[in-house]
Amino acid sequence: MSTEVVTTNEYGEVEEVMSVDGSSTTDPMLMEAPATPDTVIQETATATTDAADAAGEAWASFQVKANAFLAKAIQSTGTFLEQNKQLLSVLGWTLLTLLGIRVVFAALDAIDDIPLVTPVLKLIGLATVAWFIWRYLLRANNRHELSQMFNNAKAELFGDQS
């Protein structure tokens, strides 16, 4: 009984073919004939075809497993989103609010960096406070008018709480 050992290089090209005898006899009649180049090429082609078939089957198996995994992941994600819809909605609105606050502060910081804008805005704020004090807080009848406006707004927002 003999076994052929084929040595290939890194590109799959046959470099050497050896016939290894499994029996300990050295009788030339019992030894098999050395492999011909046609036999080696044919065996190499068969081995390459078998390897390609095995690789194709492995790839098909991988695709089936990957498709099953992705289908299960999509289904699990859908179930999770459906079960936690309210929590995710609150979380989304919270993040959106924080983002909006950050944008407003960034805009105010940018406006604050412009020369003369900050002092002008401070003067406008002071003028508004002075007008409010003059209009509503100096005289008793104006304070009464302000308290009525405040109570009306409170009743509209929270309902009549008599």
Low-confidence stretches: none
Report the count of strand segments: 2
**Large-scale geometry:** elongated
Biggest sheet strand line-up:
1-2
Main sheet characteristics: 2 strands, antiparallel
SSE order, as H and E?
Answer: EEHHHH
- C-alpha termini separation: 110 Å
Rounded mean pLDDT score: 82
Helix content: over 70%
- Structural class, please? mainly alpha
Radius of gyration: 44 Å
Q: Number of DSSP helices?
A: 4
**What share of residues are in beta strands?**
5-15%
Describe this structure in a few short sentences.
The protein is mostly helical and 162 residues long.
Give a description of the structure.
The protein is mainly alpha-helical and 162 residues long. The protein has four helices and two strands; from the N terminus they run ββαααα. The chain has helices spanning 37-83, 85-112, 117-137, 140-158, and strands at residues 2-8, 14-21. It has a two-stranded antiparallel ribbon with strand order 1-2. A hairpin with a 5-residue loop joins β1 and β2 (14-21). The longest helix has 47 residues, at 37-83. The mean pLDDT is 82.
Features:
single chain; 162 residues; mainly alpha; 4 helices; 2 strands; 9% strand
